[in-house]
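Format notes (please read before filing issues)

Several people have asked whether sequences and structure tokens are stored in separate files. They are not. Every record keeps both together, in the order shown below: the sequence lines, then the token lines. Line labels are part of the format and must not be stripped during preprocessing.
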Amino acid sequence: MTQTSALIDTLKKSLKTHQLTYALVAEKLNMSEANIKRMFASKRFSLDRLEEICQLMQMELTDLFQLYEESRQHISQLTREQEKELVANEKLLLIAVSVRNRLSFTDMITNYEISENECVQYLAKLDKLKIIDLLPGNRIKLRIDDGFNWLKNGPIEQFFEKQIQAQFLKSPFNRDCEKRKFLFGLLSESSIQILINKINSLSNEFSELHRQDATLPLNKRHNIGFMLALRPWELEKFQPFLKK
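Then the structure lines:
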């Protein structure tokens, strides 16, 4: 469904909510009911006419656009089957991660070994999964909400866990944009909770910075892996000395 069709559908639902029939709209706008029906059937409205209809409901055009945006399905998680589908095709997963990182169609075909046709096909699959809206001109609009997460211990988390073990941690962490800090000590439960809260706060800040930086050109952004970890832990060599 195009954005225009979806917007007009939102308008029709709003008219129904306000108990305004085509006949009533025609009467208030000094038009024939047949003309009103033709406008809705063809989905062709001038902005002035659209604004007039909104005013009948004591709405601004911006209110209608807001209702349209709210009516779109925003997802916070995929199903396990959908995640499996992404993991089964590494290029599809690459495109999924790229759109979540707000890369444009041009960014993707410029920076990755993927043809325009392939990229369009993968974007169409993501549109079918309702992760994005694929718009004319291969423009991309995300349909995931700000709280979107991969399934806990799901196929994609497991996939990235393997990459973390095999690649991410194998670094001296002494180059530009790298930093690692590991501390070891005995803490009370209240102190542990304080650190957990700080980790959550820092995670939210990372997400907000990620959102803000999405407007920058790709050459001004860097792929960054950021990991904070806190868990009960004993050095492996000490484990034989632990009491059962």
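For reference, the curators noted about this record: The first helix runs from residue 3 to 17. Residues 171-236 form one domain.
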